[in-house]
Amino acid sequence: MKITLKQAESLINLVQETQIADFFEQLRKFGIESTEISTFQKEFMFGNYRFDFYDRLQTYVNSIAETDIAVRQPRYDIFLSFSSKNTAEAESIVVFLRKCGLSVFFSNEDLKNHAGKNFITKINEALKTARHFLLLATPNSVVSPYVHYECEEFLRIYIESRKERRIFILKGEGFTLDLLKKVDFETIQTTEKEDIVRILGKEIPKDDLAERIEDYKELFEVFYADEIITERKRKQLLRKQQDLNLTDAQVEEIENGVKGELRLEQELIAKEK
Predict the structure, then answer these.
(1) Integer distance in angstroms from the first to the last C-alpha of the chain?
(2) 5, 63, 187, 227 — which has fewest CB within 10 A?
(3) pLDDT, tens digit, 9 for 90 and up, residues 252-269
(4) Which of 77, 75, 146, 73 has its CA nearest to residue 108?
């Protein structure tokens, strides 16, 4: 017996909310009886289930559904895979891609918004419902076990549906070509974030450089009021620079301009005295 896509989605939601007793009750209402279900129930009842228990439940639901729930309309345009040590760089990429109209699964915020859900379950769901995969390749990411897991899982999905999906590799801080030997992506071309936007048929918004420069300048003026930039303030400025997608040369010009204005102001005050 097969269940409808709507019924499958209701069951998947129960699994993701860890309402397992309700999950089994719903299966009975749908008229589903199987040896596999009995096995799942025993595991759950006696607390003797493996770490991938919730993933196996979802796989089972897909096996009895008329249409695999994973082939419904993708929830995300891009799944971003990165090391937590490169979070600031990843955030700036997410900001840019979203400005260009692309929906991005960003684990730092998405998992925070679904606190209480099984981590691996949420990652697997995002991998299945993301149309494309983007790896931020850095020395940290290529040795991360979580990144390797995400790569392997998406590769498995990609092999089955490569006509609809793409894999992108974005060269992050510290990138070198030999890094790609550590992940199974040697044949997939690296690219820039602007190219990803164009390949996926989106437009990059007209440059708002003047606004971004003014935004950074305002923050720097506040921090430089006492002419001391602490390490904490410098980290905040670096994050602001990455969010605004400003180059080091642009930031240096802005900061030197603010310092020059402050010196001139001090000189005028001194003359008046």
Answers:
(1) 92
(2) 187
(3) 999 999 888 888 887 777
(4) 146
pTM comes to 0.52
Query: Token digits for 271?
Result: 């003359």
Contacts of 154-157 spanning 24+ positions with Cβ under 8 A: 154/79, 154/81, 154/127, 154/130, 155/184, 157/70, 157/127, 157/128
> Tell me, which fold does domain 76-199 have in CATH?
Rossmann fold (3.40.50)
DSSP E strand stretches across the chain: 76-81, 104-105, 130-137, 167-171, 190-191
- Domain ranges in the chain are 5-71, 76-199, 209-272
Query: For residue 1, how many C-alpha atoms fall within 13 Å in the half-sphere facing its CB?
Result: 11
Give me Rg for the CA atoms of the chain. Answer: 25
Instruction: Say if residues 120 and 16 touch (Cβ distance below 8 Å).
Output: no
Residue 171 pairs with which residues in a beta bridge?
137
pLDDT at 71: 46
- ∠ Cα 173 175 179 (to 5°): 140
d(CA 39, CA 37): 5
